Amino acid sequence: MFYKQILKWKAKKRMARSGIKDIDRMDGFQFEAYLKVLFKKLGYRPVVTQKSGDYGADVILKGKNKVVIHAKRYGYKNRVSMDAVREVYAAQAFYQADEAWVITNSLYTKQAKELAKACGVKLLDRFALQDFIIEINPERMPT
Question: What CATH architecture applies to the domain 12-136?
């Protein structure tokens, strides 16, 4: 019982440090812009694509490797389906990228995980995103 309380406390602390609650209040375009700022700190040259007709890529990272990202800002209870994996996989071919990622503030369905594994698409879910934010920006929360 004490162990579960420690885990809950650590989860709450991670949520506060990552600012995931702020991300939960963003709209999709704000989330894409936030990812752009985050990846710029890592030395990429990120570009947010147009709102429609983007061929499944919301952010394109240019650097040593070219990465297409499909950003899915959902409600916490809604899971990202394999449609997002299909779209970013197609975007990888269209933009001639080296890698394809789907990043969400939520979680993925079992089918999305299976398809991503088969296609070589990287998935960052809510918990991986929190860890990623803390690793990049350990002192400040997103605004």
Answer: 3-Layer(aba) Sandwich (3.40)
Q: What is the mean pLDDT of residues 12-22?
A: 65
Rounded average pLDDT over 58-83: 92
Domain ranges of the chain: 12-136
The model's pTM is 0.84
The 8-class DSSP code of residue 126 comes to H
Query: Does the pLDDT of residue 142 top 70, yes or no?
Result: no
Between CA 121 and CA 76 the distance in angstroms is 22
For the chain, the three-class secondary structure string (H helix, E strand, C coil) is CHHHHHHHHHHHHHHHHHCHHHHHHCCHHHHHHHHHHHHHCCCCEEEECCCCCCCCCCEEEECCCCEEEEEECCCCCCEECHHHHHHHHHHHHHCCCCEEEEEECCEECHHHHHHHHHHCCEEECHHHHHHHHHHHCCCCCCC
